[in-house]
Amino acid sequence: MKYFVIGDEDTVLGFSLVGVFGMQATNAEQARQAWNKALEDRANGIIIITDVVANMIRPTVDQYLFSESFPLVVEIPSSRGEESHTDLRTLVNQAIGVSL
């Protein structure tokens, strides 16, 4: 099982340091493309998405959040969000259990 991250540039870069592939999204179209790319590979068991990007495609994300569908979706605070108080190292550690 693999992870896939969708978020801002800093988040995607941070997760790539521990071997998690992902795509950057700065608008709804890019978010949809990244989401579809994540779903293409059946080995992606967990999609990690920042709250800012998730809000861009909220109905789609909620379909997976509130169902027993596969893959599992983990929503994390954006590193550039208004309420971001957690550093990127802590987010990676909490999401996948790897310390940088």
Description of the structure:
By secondary structure, the chain is an alpha/beta fold. It has a single domain (2-94), classed as ATPase, V1 complex, subunit F (Rossmann fold), CATH 3.40.50.10580. 44% of the residues lie in helices and 22% in strands. It contains five helices and four strands, in the order E-H-E-H-E-H-H-E-H. It has helices spanning 9-16, 28-40, 51-56, 58-65, 88-96, and strands at 2-7, 21-24, 44-50, 72-76. A four-stranded parallel sheet has the order 2-1-3-4, sandwiched between helices. Strand 1, helix 1 and strand 2 form a beta-alpha-beta unit. The two termini are 21 Å apart.
Q: What are the low-pLDDT stretches, counting only 5+ consecutive residues below 50?
A: none
Residues in β-strands, percent: 15-25%
What characterizes the major β-sheet? 4 strands, parallel
Distance between the termini: 21 Å
Determine the structural class based on helices, strands and strand pairing.
alpha/beta
